[in-house]
Amino acid sequence: MSNEHPTPNTPNESTQNSNKVSPFLTSPLPEGTPQGQQTSLNQASQDTPITEQVPHYNLPRGAGKTGNVGDTTHFGFKTVRTEDKAQKVAEVFHSVASKYDIMNDLMSFGIHRLWKRFAINMSGVRRGQHVLDIAGGTGDLAKVFSREVGPQGHVVLSDINESMLNVGRSRLLDAGCTNVDFVLANAETLEPFADNSFDLLTISFGLRNVTDKDAALESMYRVLKPGGRLLILEFSKPVFEPFSKLYDLYSFTALPIMGKLVANDSESYKYLAESIRMHPDQRTLKGMMEKAGFQNCDYHNLTGGIVAVHRGFKL
To answer: Is 186 annotated as a binding residue?
Structure first.
């Protein structure tokens, strides 16, 4: 774990093996366009045509174009119409919802639980506070926050995806979390929520799937109380290049295979790997938070930068 100026923290075996280059690493892996740089329509030959059929799922109000993104955007490494991305993301998470937790354990070797524990420890959550867990999915963080805020506090678990939210609702109700509400909400607008409503906002492994991240950050700032804090737990950019190449190899080979074997869905996990590469790096996301109005922003790299926890305050 490290702060904004991280010292690479890589297992010794990675360093020892750096001189033995795997033959698999000689083949180029897919490369995405960094978030904020719109994918060119000239790449249509290597992208899925933007005229493909788009599924239809029940999405909350506010989904769609917000004005900060052009007519097209990225969906993994593909170019799609901006208005279609939310539906395509919904298709992915509808497909993986029932196996989401077990796949998280398998893909991260259980380390995701430590990442989430670190984020919770940074939250500063206290008794009686109001917490909004955005894109909270199956409710890992919301379950802990429910206990920490106590009966006088309140937690809202929100997600844009109805299938994921249903899994989270079942888990938390079975666990006896009576101080939690479940709201279908789009992170870009957070339309159901009033200004200055929450002491703490969290979004865990969800921001990279949002079409307009700038609009989402502005909405988070709006609903946060003065003095409140935002925590973003998300995949990021590894800080050690040899480690990054091995991570790429794992992401683009092992994840789709595991997705096929466990969830019978390799394409969704291919998208998830691509979406990680398209997400802003640590410094870029910190700058986006500051642009949205957050102050005293910082970030902490976990597992060599595979994941980062960003923090910002509304003062």
So the answer is: yes
Strands 224-235 and 307-313 turn out to be antiparallel
138 annotated as ligand-binding: yes
- Pairing type for strands 198-204 and 180-184 reads unpaired
- Is 159 within any annotated ligand binding site? yes
Cβ–Cβ < 8 Å for 197, 132: yes
Q: Where are the alpha helices (DSSP H) in 175-303?
A: 213-223, 241-249, 255-263, 266-278, 282-291
- Give the chain's mean pLDDT: 84
26 is in an annotated binding site: no
| Alpha-carbon span 15 to 31, nearest angstrom | 24
Q: What CATH number does the domain located at 99-237+278-313 have?
A: 3.40.50.150
Annotated binding residue 204: yes
Closest CA to 87 of 73, 102, 67, 103: 73
Task: Say if residues 270 and 257 touch (Cβ distance below 8 Å).
Answer: no
Residue 227 parent element (H or E)? strand 224-235
Q: Where are the domains of the chain?
A: 99-237+278-313
Q: Which residue has the higher pLDDT, 168 or 263?
A: 168
Model pLDDT for residues 269-302, shown as the tens digit of each residue: 899 899 999 999 999 999 999 999 999 999 999 9
pLDDT, one tens digit per residue, over 36-91 is: 333 333 343 344 445 466 767 777 766 555 677 888 888 899 988 888 888 888 88
